[in-house]
Amino acid sequence: MAQELNRITATFNNKTVFISGATGFLGKVLIEKLLRCTEVKTLYLLVRPKANKCPKDRLQEMFNHVLFARLREERPLSLEKCEVISGDVMETDLGISDVDRRILENEVDYIFHSAATTRFDHTLQYAVKMNTLGTKYMLDLARQCKKLKIFVHVSTCFAFPKEEVLYEKTYEPPMNPQEALNIFCFGQSKIDDNWAKRYLGEYTNTYAFSKALSEGLVNQEMDKLPVIIVRPAVVIPTFKEPFAGYFNSLQSPMGIFVGAGKGVIRSTHMDSKTNASVVPVDCTINVTLVAVWDYLTLKQQRVFNISIPQEDLKISWEEIINHGKEACTKVPFTQLLWYPNGIMTKSKSWHMLHVVLFQLIPAVFVDLLLILLGYKPILVNVNQRLLKGQQIFDYYTNRAWTFDMKYFINVRKRLTKTEKETYQIEAENIDITAYLVECMLYSRRHIFKEADETLPAARRKLKIFFVLDRAVKIAFFALIFYYIIKVIFF
């Protein structure tokens, strides 16, 4: 029996692809997937020099990561298909040499623009330069590419916060993108933050604002270029490929679980009853590749929202956090500050009270103890970084987000069994706790370098911390009760 045709894979066979954001979370998983599952001809990867490392060294360091272990084993020669393009999306003409630019203009079939800053604490000027100006320079290049068949712009489902329902369509940006570029990129050398914030309006962070402007630039090219927009929701660790649990940074939702698992985070500010708008990074890439096939086949849909449809899985943040607590007890860390526990609350003041009492004050105490013992203090700094990550998380978890995905749900009905297996885009029979256990195992093994052999000892230590946690709570409430009685009767 002849093997069933995989039309998505065939879409990329013998094609030349240019990727910005190659060393980012989405970029890495996209590269791994294309090399492992398709017969792509060449991947040109835009990489900038960083931390005294040239782009080629950065790329080699990336390929040495465990994320690419399966690829190195199954298709080691595929890595030779990657070519580094030294450049930077914030530099004029992407900072690409004339020779490299001519190569791209003559050879590239597909462009994936995923380079972006996802941090919320960057100045508006920097966010617009990175996200919006970078998009402009990528579009400028696309216009010159003689063989271009598609330009994929990676946006976000959270770029238009005033929309009660985000549909699979384009939206007007908060201001004219070219005017924004003139003000923030081509105008004054430095803009006062207070003055810049006047432009944000309903936007609570510079990330969403600059991504909305970027979409505005892409929208302007839809009559001239074969462009599509993909909008992921909160991108979480890999669900399945190349293995479960991989994530790129603790400045992400996983930072909350890791911080809680180590007993550092004691409070989370969220509306725990709202539905979690999340999507694993490998599923995000799968949807993106299917969207490319769909557009090239039908030339119809231009915008794709990417999240786990509620038809597949409806789960609240509270349920996810509870699954996370269970995962933390199954896979405890060797180095713990306290027993993994804490509260979830919509009240900002109640949250901050818990942060001060049960995170910051203990962190100061531990750091002072470390200083007295001759060690470098670390916990206050760790808390500050984790609090930044929590502030980012607040944006996603303290309101209900609704994303329309009717078109894409219909697209996946057209996929064959083979295509669904290769490009999994359905949430079927997911064991959330088992998934989060894999995520915690990844962080243990590859971030904190804790060997699996230490798990039995870590579980014994966790039991001790559990007893201490209960004892401290009993003592704390007994003390409060004592003072209440004393005030009332004495």
Question: Could you please describe the fold and organization of this structure?
Answer:
- With 490 residues, this protein is α/β, with parallel strands linked by helices.
- 49% of the residues lie in helices and 10% in strands.
- The chain is built from 18 helices and 11 strands.
- The protein has helices spanning 7-12, 25-37, 55-63, 69-74, 98-107, 124-144, 177-184, 193-196, 206-220, 253-261, 281-298, 317-330, 348-372, 379-397, 406-413, 417-422, 432-447, 455-489; strands at residues 16-20, 42-47, 82-86, 110-113, 150-154, 227-232, 234-236, 267-269, 278-280, 303-306, 343-345.
- The strands form 3 sheets. A 7-stranded parallel beta sheet has the order 3-2-1-4-5-6-10, sandwiched between helices.
- β1, α2 (25-37) and β2 (42-47) form a beta-alpha-beta unit.
- The termini are far apart.
In what order do the strands lie side by side in the largest sheet? 3-2-1-4-5-6-10
Give the overall pLDDT as a whole number: 89
- Tell me the Rg in angstroms: 24 Å
Find the count of extended strands (DSSP E, 2+ residues): 11
Helix/strand order = HEHEHHEHEHEHHHEEHEEHEHEHHHHHH
Query: What portion of residues is helical?
Result: 40-55%
| Strand composition percent | 5-15%
Residue stretches low in confidence (pLDDT < 50, at least 5 long) are none
Number of helices: 18
Structural class: alpha/beta
Distance between the termini: 90 Å
Largest sheet: 7 strands, parallel
Assign an overall shape.
Answer: globular
